[in-house]
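Exam revision sheet. Question 4 asks you to relate a sequence to its structure. Input first:
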Amino acid sequence: MSEHEKALLTEIIVSTSLGFVFFIAFWLICGGYHTPTYIAYYSDGAFLSAGLLLAFCGLRLATRGGSFDVLGYSAYALFLSFRPRPTERRYKTAGDYQQGMNEKRKRRKAHYLPWLINAGVYLVLAVILLLVWLSI
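Answer key, C-alpha cells:
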C-alpha cells in the first residue's frame, strides 16, 4: 500500500468515526432513547454530524491554505523558549516557518472527499428520518 493510499484510508476511517461519534453522542446527551419520538432525535443527531463534518472539512481547508501559520510559529517559538538548554531552531522567522509548511503541504495531498461524502450521507439520513417522523 502506497503512502497516498494509507493517507486516504486514514481520512476515511477518521471521518467515518467522528461522524458516528457525533451522531451517538448527540443522541445519548439529548436522551433520545427515553422518548417515543426517538426518530426526531436520530434526525437531529444526523444533521448535527453532517454540520460538524462540514465544519471540520472547512477548517482543514483553511489550515491547508496557510491561515494559521503565524499562530503555529508562535506556538513553536513559545515551546522552544521553555527548553532548559537553547537548541538550534529549525525556523528562524515566521516567514521561514511558512515556507517550510508550504513545502510540507505540497508533499502531502489533502483528502476532502471522505469528509464531504460522510457529511452528505448524514445529511441525507437526517432528511429521510425527518420525513419519516413527519409522516407518522
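Marking note for examiners. Residues 3-30 form the longest helix (28 residues).
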